[in-house]
Amino acid sequence: MTGLTVLLDGLHFPEGPRWHDGRLWFSDFYAHEVVAVDLQGRRETIVCVPEQPSGLGWLPDGRLLVVSMKDRKVMRLDPDGLKVHADLWHLAAFNCNDMVVDADGRAYVGNFGFNHYVGEKPAPAPLIRVDPDGSTSIAAEGLMFPNGTVITPDGGTLIVGETRGRRLTAFDRAPDGGLSNKRVWADLGDNYPDGICLDAEGAIWVADPRNNMVIRVREGGEVTDTVSTGDLGAFACMLGGEDGRTLFVCTAKMSGPGAAEIRSGRIEQIRVDVPGAGLP
Question: What is the spatial distance between Cα 198 and Cα 151, in angstroms, rounded to a whole number?
């Protein structure tokens, strides 16, 4: 691998990258925008989400789903505009964040679990399930800041990054979307997982904003590759490009509201050996 190069810069704070229809889609938190960018760096604002966008996904009919963080909703982009797809206020103790959407349009949404902006003590949070009709339920409980989430190509395993738990946690996933057999997929030691993505060898790329790096991890915790992001934190990553071998990384100096003023956010990219697989 060679070093990272910049595809797009001047962003407030990019998160939730997804490769879709030949472009990288992502949320720019403090600009309140969902953006798509092509491989030449040409960007398009897809929709504005007033209460701060985060995780992205798509229904089988192609409509975009986007997490609206501060009002704890999943929004749906219909032909006539943005609509509420699901209200998670009663299930999430604080802001919602990342999301993965399966092939049937079933979403799994993470949340902070506590208000760290005012110094609340860290608390466990659930992973919330949103069915295609917008109905909601708890998919799994007792997670320490459930964040980036992936589903294996066969649909049989869901893996979520617990940022505060410094681990990747796996569940068996039933055909109806139910989760069971919770287990540690990888103990990450001193690494803090934020956004994650899965490759065709079953390894997971993990963005670590505290240690300014992206690491590739195998089940059990072996780290096979490390990519430094210099003086910027790595907040999310996604495999994509024409052959699935471009690793896109969302970087920024900080994630808090001050990021809106300094606009240090970037989409950076690097070529890797193994293409992406599974969802997102």
Answer: 8
Query: Is residue 191 packed enough to be buried (19+ CB in 10 Å), middle (13-18) or exposed (0-12)?
Result: buried
CA 137 – CA 14 distance, rounded (Å) = 28
Integer Cα distance of 128 and 191 in angstroms: 24
Reported as a single tens digit per residue, the pLDDT across 18-40 is 999 999 999 999 999 999 999 99
Closest CA to 200 of 243, 258, 250: 243
Radius of gyration of the chain (CA): 17
Domain 5-271 has CATH 2.120.10.30: yes
Q: CA dist 141 to 115, 191, 225, 241, Å?
A: 18, 22, 31, 35
Helix (H) or strand (E) holding 151: strand 146-151
Q: Where are the domains of the chain?
A: 5-271
Alpha-carbon distance of 219 to 170, in angstroms, equals 10
Please name the residue that has the structure tokens 């893996």: 159
Give the whole-angstrom CA distance, residue 209 versus residue 98. 15
pTM above 0.90, yes or no: yes
Rounded-to-integer distance, Cα 143 and Cα 64, Å: 27
